[in-house]
Amino acid sequence: MHLSQRVLKARVSGTIRLAEMARERAASGVTVHDLAEGEPDFDTPRHITEAAHRAALSGRTRYTSVAGTQELRDAVAEKFRRDNGLKCTADTVIVGTGAKQLIFNALLASMNGGDEAIIPAPYWVSYPDMVMIADGLPKVVDCSETGFKITPDALLAAITPRTRWLILNSPCNPSGAVYSADELAALAAVLREAPDVAIMCDDIYEKILFTGAPFATMAEVAPDLAARVLTVNGVSKSHAMTGWRIGFATGPKGFIDAMAKLQGQSTTNASSVSQAAALAALTGPQDQVEDWRRAYQRRRDKVMAAIRTMPGLQARAPDGAFYVLIGCGAVIGKARPDGTVIETDIALSEYLLETAGVALVPGTEFGIPCHLRLCFAKSGKEVLLACAEMGKALAALS
């Protein structure tokens, strides 16, 4: 069979590839510390699972509206109003099979050949490929010297007549960088002069924040731009529901309708049982969200302390999410015990997996070579054991 050019030019997700490699090694009996895949190690809270069970037993297993059940969209609208100060109603909400699908649908619904999307680097691995699949051009802006965040000057320089999107991810995967309200306001000042540029805010890590300041998102900070802001969120990270595959988004009604039109020709509705679970997640007890945030912060601090003891590595403490982006430039060029020179961060990640049994994602996958991404959404004990093995493997380089 022939393959389309859009599929041929897309890459396999680096995080998925590394996670599969780790699973294969573990299946063969090798001890593997998988710090590659971004997934909470906590179980979905019991009241959420029980809500799904009740929904299934009561026959709520049929098609729902393409954009999601009325009850869930009402709850999502309330979440956006309560937590983010957005003027949101159920008819401006769409529920999809994960936030990832909604981002994909948004790009596919809006981009034509040659349209550009500005993507600050480091970025989540799928953004550039999604843009290309939508026949767009990813315009990557290097933010490695500005705290891993795009500045107003860099944004202004990147905008062209073909720019259709600015994609913001805060807290960011992989860097953990968080945009403050003031920083978003400064970007908004630039965007007001670029009326053809829409803003996509991927806020999936909203609840995992270590700054002590309130979370901020663009449509809240700059309500006058709300007519061209798509705010994407979900329950995967906040409620340990990655496998349930429920994301949601809000934006101008016409655009949400266009996304629903596209979704109606692909997946139709997200899982009805998963929607019932997400409803319970949003409307039920929230104590575990803060408990988990504190646990992640403790793990972050332990990881940072461990990294500081490792030869050739450096990192800044993330302000959110559950990743540390580790600079490994001082290690590139060193030789393994067998004499093989480690020439890239990809080669270093392979060495650490083979030698230390630690799976990390190379920064090249996120548009920032000479880095490694470590996910600390694992038990504190496992993370520290993995760091100890990493330290041994790094000490063996010459």
CATH architecture annotation of the largest domain: 3-Layer(aba) Sandwich
Rg over CA atoms: 21 Å
Q: Treating each run of at least 4 consecutive H or I residues as one helix, how many helices?
A: 14
| Helix-strand string | HHEHHEHEHEHEHEHEEHHHEEHEEEH
The name of the CATH superfamily of the largest domain reads: Type I PLP-dependent aspartate aminotransferase-like (Major domain)
Number of domains: 2
Distance between the termini: 48 Å
CATH class assignment of the largest domain: Alpha Beta
Oligomer: single chain
How much of the polypeptide forms β-strand, as a percent range? 5-15%
Global structural class: alpha/beta
What is the helix content?
A: 25-40%
CATH topology of the largest domain: Aspartate Aminotransferase, domain 2
pLDDT averaged residue by residue: 95
Which blocks of ≥5 consecutive residues have pLDDT under 50? none
How many beta-strand runs? 13
Major beta sheet, specifics?
A: 7 strands, mixed
Shape: globular
Can you describe this structure?
Strands 2-8-7-6-5-3-4 form a seven-stranded mixed β-sheet, with helices on both faces. A four-stranded antiparallel β-sheet has the order 9-10-13-12. The radius of gyration is 21 Å and the shape is globular. It is 40% helix and 14% strand. The chain has helices at residues 5-8, 14-27, 46-57, 70-84, 99-108, 126-133, 152-158, 181-191, 218-221, 253-264, 272-283, 287-307, 345-356, 380-395; strands at 33-34, 93-96, 116-121, 137-142, 163-169, 198-202, 229-234, 247-250, 314-315, 323-327, 358-359, 361-362, 371-375. It is an alpha/beta fold and 398 residues long. It folds into two domains: 5-43 and 288-395, Alpha-Beta Complex (Aspartate Aminotransferase, domain 1), CATH 3.90.1150.10; 46-283, Aspartate Aminotransferase, domain 2 (3-Layer(aba) Sandwich), CATH 3.40.640.
